[in-house]
Every structure is written in structure tokens, then in C-alpha cells.
Amino acid sequence: MKIVVLDGQVLNPGDISWEPLQALGELVVYPDTTQNDIAERVQGADVVLVNKVRLGTPHFPALSRVRLIGLLATGYDNVDVAAFQTINVPVCNVVAYGIRDVAQHAFALLLELCNNCGLHNASVQAGKWRDTWCYWEKPLRCLTDLTIGILGFGAIGRCVGQLANAFGMRVLACNRSQANPPSYTPFAYVSAEELFARSDVISLHCPLTDQTRAIINEHTISTMKPGVFIVNTARGALLDEEACAKALERGHIGGLACDVLAHEPPTQDNPLLRAKNTIITPHMAWATSHARQNIIDLMATNIANWFAGKPTNIVNAVSPQSR
């Protein structure tokens, strides 16, 4: 079997192992691939793996031999899965590879909003800590007894809820399914409207759909508590970024921490880049070495399962007998 990875640099810059894929056959890894290079690089491949490289109908002639397309990620917006279904090429992804990793990052962002460690470290390094035994540049905030509203209570949202409970927070959750509530208290499933109205902190963990796009907007912000903190480690387009920037300016949103933006990488006119009380990290919540190794390991399992006739994580309806 020949496996070609078209953009392996972001996933593995050299600190984790490709060995689980190498064990399945010949592995060729390209750091990155332009659209012009795809046809040449996939020649002879049985499996093509991508992270962000776009694949679709224009690439069908070059992919005539390919038996499986794999996404080294959970999201698959960059691959036309419906088009590949028409030519009986399955597309698979990896899921649940970094649940605790993303939850950890969400809390790192929240704790930075509360304690401003980076700001205070910078001030100490600049020589400000000279004439007094302590000081603070911004008010510090304790999480105990605050209410966190978790929009999207899947695996990551549930993990965030566990962390919040450990900090003594009250947990509200809004989710399509309200099955299997957690054992800790206080906890309640609520509507999105109630979550927005009651929460001191809102953490976003829902998928981006027509219903959730820009769900944080001028109207919903107006229903929130003044000074609310918002954390987004899900999808950037869940926010109306202009509305958020205006609410940050007037203080209705007390702090915003994002690992994702509506357009990545951002253009210089993104209003959040100049908004006050805002923290932005470069879409890195998923990128611990632990989570990235899990992606490789899980993809190797997907490939092995497919060729054993027991496919896993197929995102288009192609059976193992169809190709």
C-alpha cells in the first residue's frame, strides 16, 4: 500500500512519530502541497491524507487509483465528500483525538482572562515590580460561585464542565440532546436564551451550522450579563466579530478569548485584532503533541479497518465493497 500525506508539516514538524502509518506500507510525506502539485504527488497512491489541502472534482483524473481519502482532522470542509461519493471513494476523518487537550486550552484562556498572567509577567520583566511587595494591573477574578454556560455539551463541552465544577463553578449546558446529565452539581440543561442570560462565563463547543453561525451577535450579547467572559475554542464564525468588538469596547463583554477566527489566518482589518480585553491564540488548542500523535494513530486504525472491510469514521456513504 502507498500512503501519501500532502501537508504533514503542521501536524508533525518532527516531534511525533509517523510509524503507525509507516507500518501499513510505503509512506510519502510532503510538508505542504499547492493545487498545482497535487496531480504529480498522488501518482500511484492507494491512500491520500490531507489536513487543509483542498480536494474535489478537479482532482479526480489524478486520483483514479486512490481507494481512500483521509482527513488528518475532524472537520472536512476542504474535501468535497459528496463528490467523492459519486466515484465511490470513501473519505474518513479522526474524531475525539484531543478532548482534554482542547478543554485544557479553553480553561487556559479563561484563566488568562481572570488572572492576566501574561500581562503581569510582561510588567515585571519591564521592571515595574520595584517599590512594593505586590500589585496588579487589572482586577483579578475568582471563578468560584460563578456560572459557566457551555454551548454544545459533547465530549469537549463535558470535559470543560468537569473542570469548571472542580473550580467551584455552577454549570449550565445547552445541547441538542439532554441525555446523560453529569453527576456533579449544581448543573442544569437550559435553552440557549437562558444560558446567555444567566452565565458569567460562556464557553463555545458547538458545531458551526446554519443555526449556530453568528450565534453570538448584537441581539444575543444584549441579553447577556454586563462584563460576561466569552471563550471560543470551537469555530470562529460562531461569533459576529464586529458585534463582539463593539461590545468589548463599551464593556458589555468583559473579556473575549478565542483560539479560532471566522477567517484564518486573519486579515489586518479583523476587528478583534484591535479590540480591548481580547486574547487570541492561533488555532492551537488541538496541537499538543499528545493530540497530534492521536491523529496519526487513529488514522492508521481507520486505514487498517477500511482494508479489513470494517470501515470506521467514514463521512460519505461508501461501502468497503464499492471500490
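Above is the first protein from milestone M3; the second protein from the same milestone is given next.
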Amino acid sequence: MKICVGLSGGVDSSVAALLLKRQGYDVFAMFMQNWHDTEGTLHGDCEWEEDKFVAELVARKIGIPFYFVDLSGEYRQRVVDYMFDEYAHGRTPNPDVLCNSEIKFDAFLQKARALGADMVATGHYCRKEQAPDGSWKLLEGIDPGKDQSYFLCRLTQEQLACAMFPIGGMLKSEVRALAAEADLPSADKKDSQGICFVGKVDLPVFLQQKLASVEGEVVEVFDQWYADSAKYAADAALLASKEPSALSDGELLELSKPLDYSNIVFETETYRSGKHHVRKTRNKPNPWGVVAGRHEGAQFYTIGQRKGLAIGGHARPLFVLATDVGANRVYVGEGEDHKGLFRRVLRVAADELHWMRDELAMEIGAERRCRVRIRYRQELQDALLLMREGGLFVVFDKPQRSITPGQFAAFYAMPDPSDKWDAPELLGSGVI
């Protein structure tokens, strides 16, 4: 069997290639360049060239052929353009998820097949196994701190069938040790960070390649707004009075809607200032909030964001609660326990759902207990899935912090508590 390893220059893909070579497979490596532009990146102009250099050294050390492929056109069209469009509409995309389904296991796979590959292997920390019906299951990797199944939550059965994850049954420490024992050039290389194949970026600068910077207000929301909000009180009362499965479609839809702060408006007044009594204008005090600062574009911010607000004078950090791209407003709250950061219900539109195996798909009216992850490295959270006419509703047992439109919610099977090695199966996913 001929296997193409997507060799990135990092330690994970290097060890994946080493293991396959030692197991006797016909292995070759292929490095893909997916990005040329450097505007907004934080690691200099030639980071990809360094990665390619290390990848070539690794391939030479292992003794496998090395190829280079430029997929920057496909990456821009299928990942980056999607990313810009989502931010422009006030949502926060996850380009790494799209990179795997659209590039690594699609465009890259096609290039690998053209070179004779039967399978494509990557350095992802996840596993796959075959179900009794012949379909493929995607399971978490055994390293709880490194599992990357979340990033593969949009793969199809056809893509899984030709995918290999050689290090999914290893701990990161074991991978590092094996790389050091084999004296691989990537043994001590730090893990990559930031956007897949772009790297760490100054997001506003990066997005300004296509999205205009327009100054607007940052509004801090006070606790009094929640005390006076009829929706906030009604949502809390509804969740306290009914079991999730007893909620109607209309009630679930209402509970899944983010809070709307547009009723926080500011009346102005004029006053005279200084010894020359110069006439100035200011906002009248408002018990619901205050204009705490200015920003350069609401589309550059995401729910739960802490850094980049540049607003002082608070005992605790400020966090983004919501953005309104139409009004170009950003709403923030003080403290990581702020009421506006937490919700219990999210909705996935029916056409945004993806099930890893056909038999896992839920029919309208079906319910399923499972565990859910709404961001990478978040601990799995207990929840109830409710499939209704209006889409799939996820009702969490506990309020969740920073549920963000545009991100992916990934659904996992409940683990077997009697088996400490049991790894949850990734059932499916949907765009929040």
C-alpha cells in the first residue's frame, strides 16, 4: 500500500511518517504551501520556507521521497474567502475545520492520488475504526490534552476511508520521545499556532485586506440591563420550569437567540466646560450601560474576546458579549462571570448539520443525550440534542460561556464509565 504523508515540518507529522516507514509501508512525503501573503502575520515573511526546509530534512532522515505542492489558490478560494465572508457578516468562522475537509482531505488528497497514493496520513491526534456495517468511526485520540478530532468534524465517509492517523493512539510526550530517539530534525520544534497554514496573525490587520475599518462605539453593559430585561427573565424562568424535551419549537427557538442589546441608547445633553464656558456634548447617565471606548470595526471582534479592547479603568478584564455589524457596535461586560457571556441553548440549521455516519443522523422529533464541544480543547459538556422542524437544538446541562455564531459545535457519544480507555466517537457537527 502506498501512503502519502502530509509532512508539515512539525514533530507530529514527522513521527507519523516514521511509524509508517517502520511498519513497512511504501511511504512518500508531500509538503503543501497554502499561503503566500504576509500582511498581518506575526512571524516574518518566510515561515513556510523554514517549515519546508525542516520537512525535507525529516524526509531525508527517514529515507522517503519528498514532494512539494502549491495549493494556495484552492486555499484562498475555499478557506480564506469563506473566512472573510463570515467575519463580514458578524460571525466567527473556524478556518482550521474547513482546511481539513476542503484542503488536506480533498485538494491535497487528489494531488497525492495523482502520485499513486492509496491513503493519506496526517499527524492528527485522533483515531478511526470500522463499524460493523463497514462505515468508519472517528474517535478521540487517547491524549486528552491533544485530541484533534474536533478539527475533523466535517469529514465524509469517503474522506475517512482513505485517511490514516498513525499517532492517534500515542501521548504527545511519547511522540516527542520517539522523535528524539530517532534524531528527527523536528524533534524539538514548537507546535504551530494560529490559522492553519497562515500562522499567528494580527486579526484586524489581516482582515483589513478585504474588510474596511470603520470606527464605532464599544458599549459596556451593566447588570441592571439584565435585571430589567423581560427576555432575560423569561428565558431563565422557562429553563427552570420545564424539562428540555418538553420545550416547544417556538420556545427552543427563542432560547437559542442571542441577547439583543440594541435597546441600550444614549440621550445627549450640552454643558459648558472650562473657564471659557465652551459648549460641549455628552451622554446622559444610563443605568443599563455606558460608552466605554471606540473600536475600528465590529467585524474584527468575537464573542468572549478579551484582548485588543484597549479600555482601562476596570478592576477586572472586559470581555466581548456581542457584536452588531449593522450598527457597528461592540458590547462588552466586566469579569469572566458576566451574565451576558453565558447561555444554555444553541441552534444549528438543518442544512448546516453534518453526520459522520448515515446511521447517526437524527430524524425530526428524535432526542439524544451526548457530549458537546463548541471550541477546540474545551472539555466535553453534557447536553441533550433535540431535532425539530426548526433545526437541531442543543440544550446544555450547564450554561456555556461564549457560544459564538459561525463556530462549529461537535457532538460526541456518551463514554462508557466502566472503561477508562473508552474514547468517545465523534457523531457529527453543525455551524452555530
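Note on the second protein: The chain has three domains: 2-123+166-207, 216-336, 342-431.
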